[in-house]
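Hey, resending since the last one bounced:
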Amino acid sequence: MRDESNESNGPKAAPPNPDARPPLHHDSFYEFAHVADVSQVVSVLRELTQGLTGTILVAKEGINGMLAGEESALDAFQKALAQDPRLGGLFGALEVKRSPCASPPFRRMKVRHKAEILPLGIAGVDAVNHTGIRVDPAAWRELIARDDVVLIDNRNSFEFRLGHFKRALNPGVHNFRDFPRYVEANLETWKAQGKRVAMYCTGGIRCEKTSAWLATMDMPVYELAGGIISYFRQMPDADKDWEGECFVFDNRVALDTHLQQTSTTLEDIFSGDEQDAWRLRRALRLAQDRVKDGADDEDAS
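The structure tokens again:
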């Protein structure tokens, strides 16, 4: 009699691939904090990020980082960042924005000592002790629908063109350092009109530094907590408020409202704009360098 006990009723499953690796993920984070010994923090972070790729900037005003790796490795780093006694608890409360990667965002790991983690072009801005009014994504949707709110995109003009909140104003700047001039040119008008200012950026850091500066000018700012990335992550129907894609400063180039990498290329973004032609040339050069020898990635500005 034929023994069919071990026969399958369907196609056999493919054998496991011993070379398959867990998928990569991308973490972005920042924290404004008083860092007394920047060199020591740089040294500790270089140790803790072994096996990861990306960039972390360290300055006396805090840290600003983007990392990629397997989720278990990213989790281990974030735990060490919060608990390593050598860091003195400086970064135990920072928010991490995580998204999946269809391709490696970075080719190497860099931890750099900088004068500022994000230069605004104005000396003496204290983002450690001053900040705006943080608004979570659900409340943000209600806020930006109000007529007494002026909604400002606190990013570069090419980022706005690729995607933005539907009611947002484009300041038309080509570098973050140009943004204060736009604000100064419009601030008194907004005050006279009784407008409240709400602004957003990719991960939140630009808005936090800008709002610290505006706090000294008697202008409170409503910030989207965690930036666009957190909005996409927490709002499954983000496309109701958002038009287009979101540019990211790594090899993925652009994400949709579900945090999935799109097919948009650097040429799609920068071609046709002479003022940003230098960005395309630099981005393509850096991408080629990364393929050859893992040269430095472009920093978000």
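The radius of gyration is 22 Å.

Sorry for the duplicate.
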